Amino acid sequence: MTEIKHKTFLFDATRCIDCRACMVACSVENKIPMNKTRIWVAGIGLKGEYPNLERASMVYHCMHCNEPDCLSACPVGAYSKRLDGPVVYNPKKCIGCRYCMNACPFGVPHFDWDKGLIEGAFIDKCTMCPQRIDIGLEPACVATCPTEALKFGERDDLLKYAHDRLAAQPARYVNHVYGETENGGTSYFILSHVPFNELGLPELSSRPVKDVSEEVMGFTIPFALGWGAVLTGLAAGVHLYNQKKEADARKLETSESQAEEKK
Amino acid sequence: MTNTLSRRDFLKVSGATIGAAVLGQFIPPWVAEAARANGMLDATNSGYIPSMCEMCVWRCGLLAKVEEGRVVKLEGNPDHPHSNGKLCPRGQSGLMNTYDPDRVLTPLIRVGKRGEGLFRKASWEAALDLVAQNMLDIKQKYGPEAMIFSTTHCLSQSQFESLLNGFGSPNYGTQRSLCFNAMIVSNLTTYGMEEPDRRYDDLKYIILTGRNLMEAISTSETSALSQAIDRGVKVVTLDPRFTKTAAKSAEWLAIRPGTDLAFHLALINVIITEYLYNRQFVSDYTSGFDRLASNITQYTPEWAASITEIPADTIRRIAREFAVAAPYALAHNGWRTSNFVNSFQTERAIGILNALAGNWGVAMFPASGEESGVLGTPPQPPYPRVSAQRLDGVPWKYPFVPLKIGVFQELREAAISGTPYQAHGWFISRQNPAMSLPDRGRTLEAFSKMDFIATIDILMNDTAWFSDVVLPEASYLERYDPLNIVGDKAFIRQPVIEPQGEGRSALWIYKELGTRLGLSDFFQYADEEDYLKQQLAPLGVSLDQVRQTGYVELPSEIGEFSEPNWNTPSGKIELYSTTLDQGGFAAVPQWEEPPAPQPGQFYLLTGKVAQSTQFGTQNNQLLHKYSDEPRLWMNVTTAKNLGLANNDLVEVASTAGKIHIKLEATQAIRPDCVYLTPGYGHLSKGLTVAYGVGASDSDLHVTYTDPISGGQALSQTFVTVKKI
User: Fold this and answer.
1) pTM score, whole prediction
2) How far out from the chain centre does Cα A42 lie?
3) Which of A216-225, A228-237, B258-267, B287-296 has the lowest mean pLDDT?
4) What's A58's domain CATH number?
5) Which residues contact B43 (CB under 8 A, 6 or more apart)?
6) Is residue A109 part of a domain?
7) What is the rounded CA–CA span in Å between residue A96 and residue A89?
């Protein structure tokens, strides 16, 4: 079996200067309308009180989960996880139910109301620039980052790189690579000098939300069938009872009329 | 005012740009044709073309991705040392300057009153004839000195200067005195060079005095600083604001504005009195150490503590840390150093500190410079002799200021006062004095004294709005400029798409105007390509080759640091400057107390953000999309004490004027300061995105000129703030 190269982003919050070159590059590369964006600056920004201050912000976009909840929630299979990393979306299949928006623990997919009403349902989110990575380029946001706060590469390599950094500079970072295990692992790793919730990231277990939901949802059919059987039985019973009652009533009617006739 | 554009706006934009593309069909597609011949574009006119950014003056190399004759994406050119494959947000947004629906696409001649914004379209022929005729009339009536010429640092500056010098006017306005005069004049006095090169590779310690590299981005230098911090280099940032640079620094010192000089004098005091300086370097390369040493004893850390509001122990510790790290230590000399009337001596102290550390050849290097004799130039006769005095007082009032830099705000003052004589015309290229000069009311008054104003720009900027003729330049993605030397290469800016509308290169406009002014001898090139071919002639490289690679390698003259050539009177680094002494100024840096705000007043600070450059990018829709709304920063506690809250509309007033703006109550600024991002509050309604957004600090800035460097003291304006 050939080894699959699994691409991943690495974001180092200690190096981000919130210049927004990534946001502009993404907007131009992906022809995003002027009133839309696929990247946000998240996080608390300024922290502390004058003069003891700190800044914390992050480049927030699709985490490209290894086990994507959007994919799991989509009833029509509009989402797919490419073997090389990106979670991609096919607008042609989308019916606009927006289950993916509710399912994503990172709040990433956005429904485009402008397009949705005219051109059909459309969900927008980061695609990892397949048009670039397929020809060996980095995604637009990574390629232009002036301080190399964003990196891109093979998941294994970046994971090792991230752990090497944590080991080499323990005072600089929170001792964790966010995305290594969160939600079953993502294709976006984050290193930070502040707690991850201050970057706007949710606390998630290593068990993907979709597993939990799938486990629960797994009971749906047996439950539906069982309950159906109960209801069917009940209905059948009621039906039989009614039939019997009707028959008895008819019998009674018949005997009464016969009695009258006899008179 | 909303910061996002509606969908309707976006559709309008798309419509306008499509319209422009269709219009482009009528012009012979020579750009695409040449690019196809060079193999840069394929049969569908798609591919990558190397060129050079012009969203600021750093000039990163870029690769323009072109699809069917339209620029669709810009990438940093990995071959260019200023970009190393990266572009900042402004560089990434550059194509939106070119496709701005507000572009001026034909020459315009004013038909309404000045400032009314009523113009009629004109042919180049008619517009250039009108400009030339007005300039010649002024020359005949009042002499050539009655014409002011002003432009900003750009690649066609030398051709602009051919117009100025050929015409015979001494009155040249650059933006330098609003930016880095203090740094340049100080370096000339101390080292005999304008600005040494800096390298971060081997550094261990950096002191940044107001050089906000993480927001005032110079891509390669910002990247180098980021890498240095990543390696564990200690960065100490002096700034009254908690900038994004301060946030990345190991130590932020919220120094009292105007006291950087006291801080550096105290560092020098510790380094000299504790014998921490590089004795070998000082004895080999400097002069005047003894006079410096005897004068510096008064400036102890304890003395500086009360002035700077930084504890004496901190100052002493930083001095020792800096000395221990030396020569792998850099006191950054800043860039926009136009802050206070003592900014020149602040820069002197920084220069001297670097000399005492002996960090030359490690952190600092003699400037490689942009000018080089290796490129050819078209032949030209000598310029006519100019005998008239300069209006800006250089050198008769400001003997230390280089002629090519000047004192712009004093030029404006003379245009109002009419002394020593009255100016009557103003020819402006890619510059916006209506936004950049302090005290905007006075700049508009100066405009009103002019019989004639002509402006060249790609947009209807605020100065163009008050002009009689507006000439449309081709954008930097649509034109050639002269080659730019960086290190051992000369880089090209070349058109990657056809010019839109009637846009023309500065090389073409200056030549056409020069010819009409009878100055054709100073413009001996047939067209832009001919100019470049003449530049390349001595190198034996064809223009086609340079167009493909984006650069040409130059015969290398730049070696490793050996014996530097200090171009000063003593031939050494002048710790004591005899020139300053002769001029009647302090020959070793001495403390000068700058004015401070009265109770109830605040220092008005200026600065930079990563999403705009000076006054020319606020109309760019992509940058507008990702910019913060410009608000007046005020310390949270101060705001609370004044009964002000976030987003309150406030009136900010100085002796020069007043503005209305929203308040941003923040922890990130000293309680005695307020801050406003410059470049907003445009006057031109021809800038449909930027008009009506924010307010301009040029309405507030009071004009103060540093008598030595001619720099405008931009932070020496004090304001009151009240709720409206």
Assistant:
1) 0.91
2) 18
3) A216-225
4) 3.30.70.20
5) B36
6) yes
7) 12
Task: Quote the number of domains for chain A.
Answer: 2
- For residues A127 and A249, membership in a common domain is answered with no
Residues A204, A229 share a domain: no
The answer to whether the CB of B617 falls within 8 A of the CB of B55 is: yes
User: Within an 8 Å CB–CB cutoff, is residue A134 touching chain B?
Assistant: no
**Pair A122, A38 in one domain:** yes
Distance CA B213, CA B203 (A): 16
For residue A263, pLDDT over 50 is answered with: no
Name, in order, each residue with C-beta under 8 angstroms of B615's C-beta and a sequence gap of 6 or more. Answer: B432, B435, B436, B461, B462, B678, B679, B682
CA distance A23 to A37: 7
Q: Give the chain A residue whose CA is nearest to the CA of B85.
A: A144
Name the residue facing B92 among A24, A34, A53 (closest C-beta).
A24
Q: Are A178 and A252 in the same domain?
A: no
Task: Give the span between the Cα atoms of A232 and A237, in whole angstroms.
Answer: 8
Question: What is the pLDDT at residue B140?
Answer: 98
In a domain, A2, yes or no: no
Residues 177-216 on A with a CB inside 8 Å of B are none
Looking at per-residue pLDDT, the higher value among B219 and B16 belongs to B219
Are A145 and A170 members of one domain? yes
Q: Do B92 and A21 touch (CB under 8 A)?
A: yes
Residue of chain A nearest B612, judged by CA positions: A19
* Same structural domain, A204 and A255: no
Find residues 577-616 of chain B whose CB sits inside 8 Å of chain A: 610-611
Residue B295 has pLDDT above 80, yes or no: yes
CB contact under 8 Å between B667 and A143, yes or no, is no
- B189 and B181 in contact (C-beta within 8 Å)? no
**What structural domains does chain B harbor?**
7-98 (2.20.25.90), 108-179+386-553 (3.40.50.740), 196-366 (3.40.228.10), 602-723 (2.40.40.20)
Considering only residues B563 and B337, tell me which one the structure prediction assigns the higher pLDDT.
Answer: B337
Same domain, A194 and A252: no
Which amino acid, B354? N
Mutate to test the interface with B, among A40, A114, A119, A147 (most CBs of B within 10 A): A147
Query: Are B610 and A34 inside 8 Å of each other by CB?
Result: no
Q: B 87-116 residues with CB below 8 A of A?
A: 87-89, 91-93, 95
Domain range enclosing A234: 219-262
Q: What sign results for the dihedral spanned by CA atoms B26, B27, B31, B33?
A: positive
Residue A134: inside a domain, yes or no? yes
Shared-domain flag, residues A135 and A19:
yes
